[in-house]
Amino acid sequence: MECEMHEVIMIDKSLCINDSYVDSYVRKIQNAQNDNPQFKDIISPYRTKGISLALYEIPIIALNSIIFEFKEKEHPYILADIACTYIYGQKLEDGLSYLYRSTIMLSQFPNRFWNSDYGLAGAANTFRLLLLMCPKNHIELCRKIYRYYFVYLTKLACTTKDEIFQQEAYVNRASIELSTIARWVIPMHINPDLLYISDMYYAHYCNELASQISYASGWKYNMKSLTYYQHASIRPNNTGGYAEIEDKTYAEIVAEKHEQAKYIAFMFYSAICTGEETLTDNDIEILFKLLQNECRFNYKEIRKRVLNFKSYK
Predict the structure, then answer these.
(1) Is 12 exposed, middle or buried (0-12, 13-18, 19+ CB in 10 A)?
(2) What confidence tens digit (pLDDT) does each residue in 264-305 have?
(3) Does residue 104 fall inside a structural domain?
(4) pTM for the whole thing?
(5) 217 lies in a domain?
(6) How confident is the model at residue 40 (pLDDT cuts 50, 70, 90)?
(7) Which of 20, 80, 101, 209 has a CA that sits 20 to 30 A from residue 252's CA?
């Protein structure tokens, strides 16, 4: 199958689906959530900044009612969101069947959700969870999941009109560019650190709402980008970082790597389309049997990988 770059960075409006029913699901979830979130402290890579995750609880009766109403909807946004609800409620195994259904729909290109905003967001959430859950010693599965996640995040960042979706796409892509697995997947001649610098910049400046969220949350993604450029680390240090290593200016790196990320996504997309890096049905069966066994016999370890809370009830 011959692929073209526009398939990764543009929406084909002639192939858009009507998934407006997802709006109804989103509204019902939002209306059912408690007004005041519960905060869970997360183990942080930062020495001076703790990280807290805001979790909006939903009364169990309301949640079960919504899940019962939408559980047969074969849409990745709904399926991944239900899976998330179970997973962050520390019921990881209950979320697996929803993740499985979503993965089956998204593993082949093209698929019917490839030109849907909600579809791309659901796909990104699906592969985010899979990348967190998959044991890192299963390198080939991790590599394949990473490629799908990178592709879906890139298409979402390039095409969505939703400002929150767009910012989250850049934030999440930046996070996996700093991961160990990036060194196994990103082409060797490309430095993932520089991709991170660019994506953190765009996480702040990709749209007006992104800048507001970046400041209000205290994350200041633009400063994270600049810190990494100046110190080659998430923490300030005594080195000159990439400011000394690279010949290009900060602005040139940001612009160049923004375009290079599209090229990488297209390369991954092409490899998946040709079958070279596809998550096959057999891969998916192996993955979910592995995750089921982890949930049953190695629960604390998989919970730590996925949730990374400082403490658990």
Answers:
(1) exposed
(2) 999 999 999 999 999 999 999 999 999 999 999 999 999 999
(3) yes
(4) 0.95
(5) yes
(6) low
(7) 209
Looking at the structure of the chain, the number of domains it has is 1
Is the Cβ–Cβ distance between 183 and 204 less than 8 Å? no
Counting every residue written for the chain, the total comes to: 313
Domain containing residue 280 = 6-14+22-306
Q: How confident is the model over 93-134, as pLDDT tens digits?
A: 999 999 999 999 999 998 999 999 999 999 999 999 999 999
**Is 81 part of a structural domain of the chain?**
yes
